[in-house]
Structure to design on (363 residues):
């Protein structure tokens, strides 16, 4: 058994060993304590201001101040609560994914009331766990890529000799302001860290994109995530999504996101289902899986392009029937992976090959 993580709350010390990369989350803590918890879970509301969650990626044991407190399994969540202005947690709980129960593991005795709280996580297996540093709430800020604003031609040229649907035409010029977009599709690990559930059909792959989530469910996820962080995350507009998929100001004009060879950058016609994020090459901006793996929700109501569409920061119509989907997926045809290809689905519907990616505005 090996210790792979230790977090000390005595002097705001955070140590991550072996399988985890060191992360400092107290900037996140301070801002989170100032927010309300109207969209937090019942347990979070009952026990005070939620501050930090650690998603468990491999079976192991939790020790607090050297004493073993709980055995945890992959999929569980360690939740740490702080009172406003305090640097020491007043409660630590383990959410058991299998049973749906929250178990108190700190404080349990008089020694716990002395003020210090050091949490150790010992891996119960001999296998190395994938690091969640790039997939978790704690490092989400570092995963966001700045996309400089610019003007480009959205859609497909009317004279292009490419098999595509008319929804991609007419091609027209649009301008988008700068924004941040995640390198990765939202993973099952990140979803579970926020929601305590995993709706995915392709389960037990925490580094794979979350799937089987409706547009409406994604809005609830984002609202809850925003209560935990100092940022305002959201879905990209179609114009933002395609601009980023094309490589933004660094675009080389590829048909797929990052290459004219789909095998370099996209999972498609893959009967094994979704794959871990970032296994293929990134595009010009360093974004992974913009073509293939899972299709991605956008914020817009789907509509047919017209030559008179808004040219600056278009966000689609104010009402509609279906929400826009982009990017193709691992089971679909390669033509679905074109950066200009469009689709749509009812916002209340979920599909095992649809996920999403986060963006946020530049302040």
């Amino acid at each position: 058994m090996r210790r792979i993580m230790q977090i000390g709350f005595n002097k705001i010390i955070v140590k991550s060993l072996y399988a985890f990369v060191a992360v400092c989350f107290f900037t996140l803590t301070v801002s989170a304590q100032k927010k309300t918890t109207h969209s937090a879970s019942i347990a979070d509301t009952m026990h005070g201001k939620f501050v930090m969650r650690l998603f468990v990626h491999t079976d192991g044991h939790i020790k607090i101040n050297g004493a073993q407190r709980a055995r945890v399994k992959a999929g569980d969540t360690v939740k740490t609560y702080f009172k406003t202005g305090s640097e020491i947690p007043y409660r630590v709980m383990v959410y058991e994914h299998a049973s749906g129960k929250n178990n108190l593991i700190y404080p349990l005795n008089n020694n716990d009331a002395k003020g210090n709280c050091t949490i150790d996580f010992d891996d119960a297996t001999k296998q190395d766990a994938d690091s969640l540093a790039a997939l978790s709430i704690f490092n989400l800020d570092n995963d966001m890529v700045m996309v400089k604003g610019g003007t480009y031609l959205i859609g497909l040229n009317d004279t292009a000799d490419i098999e595509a649907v008319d929804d991609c035409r007419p091609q027209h010029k649009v301008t988008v302001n700068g924004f941040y977009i995640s390198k990765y599709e939202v993973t099952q690990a990140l979803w579970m860290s926020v929601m305590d559930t995993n709706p995915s059909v392709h389960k037990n792959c925490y580094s794979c994109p979350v799937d089987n989530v409706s547009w409406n469910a994604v809005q609830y996820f984002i609202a809850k995530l925003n209560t935990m962080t100092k940022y305002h995350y959201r879905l990209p507009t179609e114009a933002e999504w395609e601009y980023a998929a094309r490589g933004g100001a660094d675009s080389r004009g590829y048909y797929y996101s990052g290459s004219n060879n789909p095998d370099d950058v996209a999972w498609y016609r893959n009967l094994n289902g979704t794959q871990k994020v970032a296994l293929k090459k990134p595009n010009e901006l360093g974004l992974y899986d913009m073509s293939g793996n899972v299709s991605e929700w956008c914020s817009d109501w789907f509509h047919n392009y017209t030559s008179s569409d808004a040219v600056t920061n278009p966000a689609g119509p104010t009402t509609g029937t279906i929400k826009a989907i982009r990017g193709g997926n691992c089971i679909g045809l390669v033509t679905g992976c074109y950066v200009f290809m469009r689709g749509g689905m009812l916002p209340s519907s979920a599909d095992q090959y649809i996920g999403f990616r986060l963006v946020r505005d530049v302040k």
